[in-house]
Fold this sequence. Notes:
By secondary structure, the protein is of the alpha/beta class. It has nine helices and eight strands.
Amino acid sequence: METTLKHRFAVAPFVVFFGGFGSCFVNGHPSEIRSSQTIHNFIQQLSEAAGEAVPAIKACYAIGNDPIYSARYDYSDQSHSDAGSSDFETLFDWIESESAGRPLILVGQSHGGWTAMKAALHMKRTVDVLTTADPISVETCDATAFAASTSGYAIFGFQPWPGCTRAPLDLEDRFAEIRAKTGVWHHFYQTETAFLHSSGIPEATSNDQLSYNVRSVNPFGSHAWTESDYRVWDQVLDSARALLPSAAANTSVRTWASGTAAEIAPKIE
């Protein structure tokens, strides 16, 4: 399928990143998101290419998943403002209002990938770039199912929980609708974390299975690493630059695009 965006805008995109389960730990503040440095590098590079500061929102889940926390992010001083918690509908409406007049980029990993998909379905506007990295459903892999899948597999040798080892089952009949509401939908997944992983989504514009093949003491290794994988962020950056006027889109400098797949895991962990 064609993955080149044909629309170019005179203004910088609006970017939203949705972190996964426990991505802002127990305090519920987006400044604690594990991949904050990668997000910062992305927004800084896109801002330099656009010639203006890219407005952004970071959203995340604390341990326990409910509610979702969010804040505006200013890359120039790495500050967070208007931080707070809300339900999905309030957050999605805020994003839609704030992004009016700009192309919109949504990036989500794990439970955040599911949240980005829900946001695309909820909003009346088009999502110009949707990127889902190993998305896991909050509905079919909630905290209880997550614990059952993790401990049942690791301790008792049970089969992993089905809702924690597939692309979001509760949205499966709406994948085509999500695709219709997006300019491009880049989907990434891995299967190396046996009890926690997504799967391919045929309706997405592109599907890439990530592999790390690295031994790690982190039991969530491959799943967790998708959050900061440079292959994911390279794709987002390429699509984001395609939304800019031609001169800006040709900027090629990027800070994370080096190293092999095997080398990336230790850097992320």
